Amino acid sequence: MPAKLRRWATTAARANAQVTLRIVNAAEGRRLNRTYRHKDYATNVLTFVYAEHSPLAGDIVLCAPVIRAEAKSQQIELEAHYAHLVVHGMLHLQGFDHERARDAKRMERLENEIVTRLGYAAPYAVRRQTRGNSARPGHPQRRNGTSP
Predict the structure, then answer these.
(1) What would the pLDDT profile of 10-37 be if each residue is shown by its tens digit?
(2) What Cα–Cα distance (Å) separates residue 49 from each residue in 96, 120, 123, 135?
(3) Are 101 and 60 in contact (CB under 8 A)?
């Protein structure tokens, strides 16, 4: 899996980046989400940006039980969901967000392009077919509590 994680991250990177990808359990995911986003539940992915200039630096935290449950409920391959969430986190690291509708469309388009380049189905097309909407992954925040 480490080689796949690296490939997914480097494919999404537009510049040099120093990134730590961590896979955590639900308790740690909930603690991080509560501490940095003030939301008391585990979320699928959190991105922490440490440097916004080249090389970019940050952490991407993936919550395994949440990702597994989402893949099952959305009827998508677990590996494809991990790939999508790594791409999603890498885009946040690079300053993309989905706070406004226009930004969300741009980010979703990029995610679909990158994930299909990696050989998986476009994640938002799949979600629209299986759930009727395009619910986005968890909204990451920076260590200082501001949105990317």
Answers:
(1) 999 988 999 999 999 999 999 999 999 9
(2) 12, 27, 24, 23
(3) no
Exposed / middle / buried, residue 135 (Cβ in 10 Å: 0-12, 13-18, 19+) = exposed
Please give the model's pTM, rounded to 2 decimal places. Answer: 0.85
Alpha helices in the chain (DSSP H): 2-12, 26-37, 64-74, 78-93, 101-117, 123-131
Neighbours of 122 (CB within 10 A): 17
Residue-wise burial string across 9-34, b where 16 or more C-beta atoms lie within 10 A, e elsewhere: beebbeeebebebeebeeeebbebbe
Domains of the chain: 2-131 (3.40.390.30)
